[in-house]
Amino acid sequence: MHDFTPISALIGGALIGLASVWLLAANGRIAGVSSILHGVFSPPEARQGLHDAQWRAWFISGLLLAGLAWQAAGAPVPLRAGFPLGWAAAAGLLVGFGTRMSGGCTSGHGVCGLGRLSARSLVAVIVFMAAGMVAAYVTRHVLGVAS
Amino acid sequence: MNALASALGAGFLFGIGLWVSGMANPKKVLGFLDVTGDWDASLMLVMGGAVAVTLAGFKIYKTKIPMPTRADIDFPLAAGAAIFGIGWGIAGYCPGPAITAASTLSTESIVFVGAMIAGGYLHRLLDKAATR
Fold it and tell me: Total structural domains in chain A?
């Protein structure tokens, strides 16, 4: 386990948790990134109140700005080379479809769902972790994709 | 503070957390998901650190702010989580990290985010067709 980075993992995790508590306290919203993203593109009749698409777009902009600030600060940006774009597209489709079907992702079901002790979210987390482990194994070691 | 400013600030802090923790690096995520070989347990601690904070923080606000109420464990929950997990394990991106990684303008992250939006749209179309 020579890549193990416990300190930065815990600090980064705590920041993610703080951001989630902040969004709940200030906006009364759950920081589930998949729901926030797809809500930006939902039709007007599915929106929850005035400015529903706006706050979502601002949260997503914050995520993007964080990446720009990280790069501007000269912090290391690990870029992966050679991952096939067809696989990236297929994986993105599955992630977009699956998170809408189950109503959350690593943040909505994971960070926030577990934080509010939701059994529904716990089931989702166990299933997507297990599926992720199987898929990572198959992609790398059976299909031989350079991920 | 107005709602748009706090949404921007929370998104920014969330994003910084993703970079600090290593979640924005798909190879690190896959180092966790691929348990064979040189396993990297770091992401367990990312989730642990985040949930420790939300457990404490949500406790303060749950009496004042309405929380999601659904408690049923149904087929779409499990099947959707499995579909999501498969995509996550293939590419090493879940939604938050993919979006913040797209700020690097790497082709794979932009393709992934575009496909992710399309996947959500596809789900809405199928869901609408099924409930009609």
Answer: 1
- Could you count the other beta carbons within 10 Å of the beta carbon of residue A56? 23
CB pairs under 8 A between A and B: 485
Say whether B100 and A63 touch across the interface (CB within 8 A). Answer: yes
ipTM passes above 0.85: yes
Q: Which of A15, A94, A109 sits opposite B16 (nearest CB)?
A: A15
Is B99's CB within 8 Å of A135's CB? no
Domain that holds residue A110: 80-147
* Model confidence pTM above 0.80: yes
> Is residue A88 domain-resident?
yes
Question: A72 touching B, CB under 8 A?
Answer: no
Residue B28 zone, left/alpha/beta (φ > 0; ψ -120 to 50; rest): alpha
What is the pLDDT at residue A3?
Answer: 85
Our measurement of the distance from residue A120's CA atom to the centroid of its chain's CA atoms, rounded to an integer in Å, reads: 18
* A80 with B26: Cβ contact below 8 A: yes
Q: Domain segments of chain B: what residues?
A: 3-131
